[in-house]
């Protein structure tokens, strides 16, 4: 019995120590106070795995934003369900301006696809950083050299052209469907597990075209294996400036592409959002970040909080219609 | 362990049937030759057949007998319950304090007599995890509601 | 050749070598902990390399990558806790050897096979990468499907005592793999409205649960039963004559590993199982496998390390990342302003050859660190189970959480641990579940993708030579044990008839 008592005392001491240690560490809640914001470290939730494009873009941007905000920024990777796991956590975070989320185009599609009830309305946009359009890319030995020729060929061979995408309901799938609808042609859509496997299949000659971002095909363009016919955007891509846009090629197609931007939970005070907006937009203009994006073939397109909000709303409406027409979702 | 095999087979059959009926409301896209429900149905059917074979084998006695001591079985179950409790309290009291408690409890349960070890191992474990995972690898363990 | 010598000169720099060593050692540590995979290790180190020069940065990542592949097997052999999915096959015979007191021998075999496999694959990479890469491109959906079917057929050789139980475990893995968003149609299957299930059941937590947690649960029992308490470590070293018997197995496995490693999206994690299966097929003592066969350790180890060189082939020559690790490496190269692909060799020849030399050196360092470290690694076996088991359980929790910072994965790990415990008790093999989980999605999506590409024509599965050969292999592997059983029975009858 004596022994047993000794053990209990041990246990109590441990628990007490824990309470004390934890008590000392607990940070003051500063959500109401904006005068000296930010006065503690900031966390950015990245809803995809470490090492991916979104992750390294965020890390590179955060390194510059740290200097502007005067606080350290930590990255928390939370992948899963095309990003909806991490974004949901970001939406439910404390709206104190210390938990940010890096969101991407899929945010505007979850609800339409029936993947998650999460909508962009749960967030307040801070700044959009990057945009990469869909680029219609084919093998360099393909019998068509322009978008017009591609469309003529597709009209003569309906349903015979296989177009690889990054997965059913992915942004690149939507882009291919958008192409087919705008040009009134029939394509055979083949989903892959991401953009890279689709590009691989195209290089291997197993499919006829892909509609992914210029960055994902750049290496193969340089090597002469593939050629890009047109980009689905308002302006030409800085990475492949010689390639015309859809509009220039005579096809009126909505500009579709992937984008990334910083958001905060919707109840975050506007004053804090303004501070963050200024810091991140300035960070994105730093040379180190610009170089990073250039090396990775990623396009920089900055939008402030207001513009970003409009852009998201437009995307959401457009994808809603597209997805409903495709019969995806539930 | 005849009984165990039969129980396992029955559990697998029930699970398979549950999954099979769940595939009934899978949607099929127009352009797809094989829909989302094809493979799951194939697998569940296969599982049911295999389970039935296992039951027959056990009833006919052709399956090898497994020797197992049932006497100490409960200690594993108790350990599982400890872990379950641990997983439930982590979100409440935080990772590090729960871990100290869990390791201490398990060591005590495993009849570790050395008092120095009983205290130093739980604390040492938490420190190691903090240093290696939290500081070096930047994995932020859950903090809990109280702390 | 000049470029290789130049590469060697570039490497012989104290700072570069030091960085490579640091990479390998942290890689081994990361790989040996459950939940921390090679991909995660490389991804975690990636941001640090942004500020380094290309050679130092990339070699640091390569050190971590190679080190963690090797490290994953240490704990698989010693405490039945494969650190990475690629080491799951090693646990089958490696842990059995440890239980017999042959841990020292098993680790020596693992270290030697790993480094030989790694070096052979890098040599292949240096000599014939472009030719092989073009062959790898021939792999389309039907070929990948056939390879996955072949992988699944291996269940029959790792099933253990009961084929029925082995198949049940394998199909269970395949079924669990269908949980989540359907890869082809985008429809959420068996998610019951949970977004955590939408991305499917994660392989790593399941593996940690099935292997490590279930073993820890079981050893709590042993503590009270006062049995199997301490694994004795006998001072048995690997003899040269024994090593000679393994050489053919190691070379064959390295070939398999390099080959499958270079095929994009084939799932490098299963090469160790395929190599294991082939080692068993060519072995005269098939019964030894699963009970601590030396070849059962050498084959998966040589294979999973040779995947490293194989995976670099399409990455460097075509700019195509074949798996998750090389996808991160691709990003790392691009950040340094290097564009992998055919032009890399012409534009950045010296850097490429420096990397090649670095990869060879990395394998040599692993050999040295491994052989010197064995006597320290096996000390873990002298830790009493009463202390080790609680620690393993905590590491299972931390490891599965660290993977995605998601508490849901921890719950999956716990459930897998409980199921794994009962499976072991009822003598259901757990490895087939892992095989099913890895290969299920690859098989299903490539099957459906093939049909989509052929517009529903089943001929793609028997008119393409590689596909046909792989499917025949699969059939032989799956039916082999059954046929040999039938032959035995009929022979037995003949003998009886003759006696009569």
Automatic annotation (TrEMBL), chain A:
SUPFAM superfamilies: Periplasmic binding protein-like II
Keyword Signal attached: yes
Keywords assigned by UniProt, alphabetized: Receptor, Signal
Signal sequence bounds: 1-22
UniProt xrefs under InterPro entries: BUG, Bug_dom1
Domain of life of the native organism: Bacteria
Keyword Kinase: no
Recorded family membership: Belongs to the UPF0065 (bug) family.
Protein's UniProt name: Tripartite-type tricarboxylate transporter, receptor component TctC
Source organism of this protein record: Halanaerobium salsuginis
Automatic annotation (TrEMBL), chain B:
Regions that span the bilayer: 6-26, 38-56, 76-109, 116-137
Superkingdom, natural source: Bacteria
Cell membrane in keyword set: no
Keywords: Membrane, Transmembrane, Transmembrane helix
InterPro entries: DUF1468
Annotated ranges, domain DUF1468: 7-142
Name assigned to this protein: Tripartite tricarboxylate transporter TctB family protein
UniProtKB/TrEMBL annotation, chain C:
Entry-linked Pfam families: TctA
Membrane listed as a keyword: yes
Record keywords: Membrane, Transmembrane, Transmembrane helix
Domain DUF112: 17-435
Record has Membrane as a keyword: yes
Coiled coil, from the record: none
Parts of the chain that traverse the membrane: 12-36, 42-66, 106-129, 135-155, 167-187, 193-213, 315-339, 351-374, 386-404, 410-440, 461-483
Taxonomic superkingdom: Bacteria
Name by which UniProt lists this protein: Putative tricarboxylic transport membrane protein
Organism annotation: Halanaerobium salsuginis
């Amino acid at each position: 019995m004596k022994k047993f008592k000794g053990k209990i005392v041990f246990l109590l001491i441990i628990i007490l120590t824990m309470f004390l240690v934890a008590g000392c560490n607990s940070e003051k809640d500063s959500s109401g106070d904006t005068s000296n914001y930010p006065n503690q470290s900031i966390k950015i939730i990245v809803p995809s795995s470490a090492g991916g494009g979104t992750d390294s873009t965020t890390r590179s941007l955060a390194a510059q934003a740290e200097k502007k905000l005067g606080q350290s920024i930590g990255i928390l990777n939370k992948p899963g369900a095309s990003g909806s796991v991490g974004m949901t956590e970001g939406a439910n975070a404390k709206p104190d301006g210390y938990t940010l989320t890096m969101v991407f185009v899929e945010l505007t599609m979850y609800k339409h696809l029936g993947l998650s009830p999460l909508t962009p309305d749960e967030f307040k946009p801070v700044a959009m950083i990057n945009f990469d359009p869909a680029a219609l890319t084919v093998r360099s030995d393909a019998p068509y050299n322009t978008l017009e020729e591609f469309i003529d060929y597709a009209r003569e061979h309906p349903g015979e052209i296989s177009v690889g995408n990054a997965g059913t309901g992915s942004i690149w799938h939507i882009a291919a469907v958008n192409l087919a609808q705008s040009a009134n042609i029939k394509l055979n859509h083949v989903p892959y597990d991401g953009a890279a496997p689709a590009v691989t299949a195209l290089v291997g000659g197993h499919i006829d075209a892909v509609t992914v971002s210029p960055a994902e095909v750049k290496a193969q363009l340089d090597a002469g294996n593939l050629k890009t016919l047109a980009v689905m955007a308002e302006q030409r891509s800085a990475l492949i400036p010689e390639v015309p846009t859809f509009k220039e090629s005579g096809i009126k197609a909505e500009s579709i592409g992937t984008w990334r931007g910083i958001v905060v939970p919707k109840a975050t005070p506007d004053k804090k959002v303004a501070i963050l907006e200024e810091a991140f937009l300035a960070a994105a203009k730093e040379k180190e970040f610009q170089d990073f994006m250039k090396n990775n073939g990623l396009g920089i397109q900055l939008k402030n909080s207001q513009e970003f909000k409009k852009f998201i709303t437009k995307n959401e409406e457009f994808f809603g219609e597209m997805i409903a027409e495709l019969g995806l979702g539930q | 362990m005849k009984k165990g095999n039969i129980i396992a087979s029955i559990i697998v059959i029930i699970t398979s049937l549950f999954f099979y009926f769940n595939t009934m409301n899978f949607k099929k896209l127009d352009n797809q030759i094989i829909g989302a429900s094809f493979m799951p149905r194939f697998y569940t059917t296969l599982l049911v057949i295999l389970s039935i074979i296992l039951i027959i084998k056990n009833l006919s006695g052709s399956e090898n007998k497994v020797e197992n001591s049932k006497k100490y079985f409960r200690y594993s179950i108790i350990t599982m319950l400890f872990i379950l409790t641990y997983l439930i309290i982590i979100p409440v009291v935080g990772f590090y304090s729960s871990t100290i408690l869990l390791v201490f409890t398990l060591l005590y349960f495993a009849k570790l007599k050395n008092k120095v070890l009983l205290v130093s191992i739980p604390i040492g474990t938490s420190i190691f995890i903090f240093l290696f995972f939290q500081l070096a690898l930047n994995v932020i363990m859950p903090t809990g509601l109280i702390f | 050749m000049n470029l290789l010598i130049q590469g060697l000169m570039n490497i012989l720099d104290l700072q570069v070598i030091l960085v490579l060593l640091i990479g390998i050692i942290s890689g081994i540590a990361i790989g040996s902990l459950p939940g921390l995979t090679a991909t995660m290790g490389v991804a975690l180190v990636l941001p640090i390399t942004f500020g380094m020069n290309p050679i130092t940065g990339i070699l640091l990542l390569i050190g971590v990558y190679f080190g963690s592949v090797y490290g994953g097997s240490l704990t698989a052999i010693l405490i039945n806790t494969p650190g990475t999915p690629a080491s799951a096959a090693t646990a089958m015979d490696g842990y059995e050897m440890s239980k017999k007191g042959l841990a020292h021998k098993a680790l020596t075999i693992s270290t030697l096979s790993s480094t030989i496999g790694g070096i052979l694959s890098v040599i292949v990479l240096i000599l014939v990468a472009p030719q092989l890469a073009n062959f790898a491109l021939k792999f389309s959906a039907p070929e990948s499907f056939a390879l996955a079917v072949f992988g699944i057929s291996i269940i029959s050789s790792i099933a253990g005592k009961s084929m029925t139980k082995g198949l049940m475990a394998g199909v269970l893995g395949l079924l669990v793999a269908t949980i989540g968003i359907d890869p082809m149609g985008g429809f959420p299957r068996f998610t019951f409205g949970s977004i955590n299930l939408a991305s499917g059941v994660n392989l790593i937590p399941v593996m940690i649960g099935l292997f490590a947690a279930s073993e820890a649960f079981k050893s709590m029992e042993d503590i009270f039963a006062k049995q199997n308490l301490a694994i004795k470590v006998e001072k048995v070293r690997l003899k040269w004559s024994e090593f000679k018997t393994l050489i053919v197995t190691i070379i064959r496995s390295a070939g398999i590993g390099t080959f499958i490693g270079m095929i994009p999206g084939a799932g490098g994690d299963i090469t160790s199982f395929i190599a294991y299966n082939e080692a068993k097929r060519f072995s005269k003592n098939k019964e030894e496998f699963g009970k601590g066969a030396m070849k059962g350790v050498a084959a998966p180890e040589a294979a999973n390390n040779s995947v490293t060189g194989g995976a670099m082939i399409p990455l460097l020559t075509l700019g195509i990342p074949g798996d998750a690790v090389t996808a991160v490496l691709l990003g790392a190269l691009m950040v340094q302003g290097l564009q992998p692909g055919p032009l890399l060799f012409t534009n950045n020849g010296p850097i490429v050859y420096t990397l090649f030399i670095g990869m060879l050196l990395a394998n040599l360092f692993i050999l040295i660190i491994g052989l010197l470290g064995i006597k320290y690694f096996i000390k873990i076996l002298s830790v009493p189970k009463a202390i080790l088991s609680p620690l393993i359980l905590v590491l299972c929790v931390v490891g599965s959480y660290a993977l995605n910072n998601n508490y849901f994965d921890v719950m999956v790990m716990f459930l897998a641990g409980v199921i794994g415990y009962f499976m072991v008790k009822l003598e259901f093999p757990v490895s087939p579940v892992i095989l099913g989980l890895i290969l299920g999605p690859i098989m299903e999506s490539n099957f459906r993708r093939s049909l989509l590409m052929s517009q529903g024509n089943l001929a793609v599965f028997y008119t393409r030579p590689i596909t046909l050969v792989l499917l025949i292999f699969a059939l032989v592997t799956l039916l082999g044990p059954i046929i040999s059983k039938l032959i035995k029975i009929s022979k037995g009858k003949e003998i009886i008839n003759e006696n009569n």
